Amino acid sequence: MNKLAEFLPDFMHFDALSSANLIFLIGIILLLGALGGRLFQKLKIPQVVGYIVIGIIIGQSGFQILSANVISSLEPVSSIALALIGFLIGGELKISVLKKYGKQFTGILFFEAIVPFFVVSIVVTVISFLFTKDIKTSLALGLILGSISSATAPAATTDVLRENRTRGPLTTTVLGIVAMDDAVALILYAFSSSIASSLLGYTGGSLGAQLLTLAYDVFGSILLGSLIGFCLSRFIRNVMTDEGRILAFSLGAILLSTGLCVFLNLDTILAAMSVGFFMVNFAPAKTRPTFALVEKFTPPIYVLFFVLVGAKLNIWNVTAYLGLIALLYIICRTIGKSIGARVGAKITKAPETVRKFLPWCLLSQAGVAIGLSIAAGQTFATTIGPSIILIITATTFVVQLLGPICVKHAVEGAGECNLDICEEDIMKTCSVKDITLAGNPICAENSPSIVTETTKLHDILDSFSKNHNLNYVVKDNMGKFAGIITLEHLKESLQVQDLSDAIMAMDILEPGKISCNPTMLIPEVLKLFDENDTEALPIIDNEEKLLGVVEKATIDHYLRGKVLELHKQIASLG
Q1: Position with higher pLDDT, 479 vs 101
Q2: CA-CA 20 to 30 A from 125: which of 31, 73, 181, 556?
């Protein structure tokens, strides 16, 4: 691949970052990255993988359009992206959600995050030591990979849930956990990173000094983030009135937090997460739209970030040793997540569907895991950092392909697909024929609502008093539609009830101008009701044969019944 760079035009090499080159460079990264993300999305693969692949192609492993010098110069983009990730995750840590899920939520979250941490850490440490004979490096590698293994990708999982319109105890549990276990991973990473730094010689001193350094890193980051979150909420509440200024102040606060963390040697992600946590829980309600505004700003930053992630990788450096560690990471993470989720669900007495299928929903790994690997790559650049980036990127390819498939299998097995729907959703796929097949006598052929032209008014009124239908359709001697008798016609007929034996259906019917067919969807039928100011329509087949009548009230009753059935089904799931 290195030789390919020789054939590229001079303007495609960026060893010096002039202003023009920088603008051109960012344009290439954004355009190619967005294109790669879209392509992979079409292939049902998360777009973040597409960004990384583009980075690999134009970076150190591919055509080397982005030189090492350029990648290093754009390093602040990585810090900004990690801070935004932390801020948005902090926004998911709502105290109200924690209280709502209570013991069950906390128990499952704890075990499904902690168990893979220990399983991956122990196995990776042992296998790495067998290869390297270096216990400190092996333990540091195991701890970092173990902490990263706790994270689950919310995006890929929630996309599957949304696509399949799921609802029930499994869906509720999954949504809560994937929003929270990334935060657990961040905390585990903060502790593991501090211990690994000491093991690899990045920090020194006695055990007490090391513990003080760890406490300073964790609690200092949380305190700094909370303080900045408090100041930001005050500014937005008292000064800001428009979205543009709210976004400017929010990004300014996040960047300030990041810069101070770099200056004070604190954890960037943990501090940004603390800003988000404070904002979502303790700031006034007026500040809540801040998260939506920041999220709109993040896509181009994420594209730059993940393309640069791929550009840094040199896949030609992957050895049999790293390949083995990556394989063990996937196996141990899967086993750890499965055991942890099942143990947590059993201890907290979660519903059976949660115990059985939750492990299938926790396999995806993406943004936060890759973000933490990049953070490790920066912190341990001269030791285990490059290996961690390669391992996490390789495993992300695998689990992001398998994860969504497993989630779909789980929600289908739990019986929660297509339960999160309302009357409007049912109407989109429901036809007149469906209501007829539902056993509704008003819509069925030969129902009391169908009369002949010679049927006497007396018989119609007698039928009206015994049946639920409010309208009658009249057929001629050929079985075709002749007209309709509405409730208004019947009310008028009551005034001449003495003559009911002499009056027949043909005398009071109104010739029909509109009708529907059995395959017509309910939204189209309701539109006809509104446009023609009517409450009933005759049902006529392709041969113009009269099949029955559909009433607006009947449709409403059918839809409410279907929704009630779904609610009962959801309740039965626990």
Answers
A1: 479
A2: 181
